[in-house]
Request: fold
Amino acid sequence: VLEDEEAGVDAESGDGKGIELWTKNGEDGAGDEKLGPFDDEETRSFYCDVPDLLSTKPPALLGINPNDLEKQKERNLRQYGGEEGDIVGEAMLVDEVGGTDAEPKEEAPTDTSEIVGDAEEEAVMEGDEDAEEGDAVENKDTPHYKLMVLLEQELPEASRRETIDELADRFCTNHGSNAKSRKRLYKTLFLVPRTRLDLLPYWSRLAAVLDRVYSDSTLVSELEQQMHGQARFKKNQNIESRLRTVRYLGELTKFRVAPPIVVLRGLRRCLEDFSG
Reply:
């Protein structure tokens, strides 16, 4: 009996090289393997088939010089490469964020910052833009006015794959070459309304499109800092904001914008303390 049990354990453990994250069973096992962790082809396509604007747009139109273009292509190959590049890409991303033991600086929120944090962030953002926005309203042909329309009116209504891809294409073509415009967009993506969780997959897809073109996004690092800061706050308040943060990071991980180690660090943080 013991021999049979040991044989069963050996069969389950396989070659002993690691832990299998998912197993697709069924009659069409070959087709399921191609889907990976996704349930159907439509879902797999949404998270994996992301437009590569570097291949379809002139680099000069995107504001990228030849040297940066080659570096970005190499980065994309490591991070979003084919089947052979997946494992290498994840390993490189772990190195970029400082390994499994390195954790980001935590933002320890106080009672006030936790409850009204989103409102304060939005107020700061609006305050910085008041001077420029006042001039832009008078002239609707200025790039700043068009950017504000895209961020404040069109982006919150983008709840379809085709719409978000069109907005990403338009932003990179018309505003992507300006570092300040990209920073403004990243800030808008970070301040997704906590009651609009339905936008997270689409805004994450937008972040994935931009991440394949520009490497200056701070969205993942800011969300991770916010997640660890919220974990230190023990009162059960502002649950919607906490759910938004962790679900946002989960969506970004599906698109491979956020490295898996980010989610694993968050999971470890939750397992270390069940009192909060």
Summary: The first helix runs from residue 2 to 13. The radius of gyration is 21 Å. The chain has 15 helices and no strands.
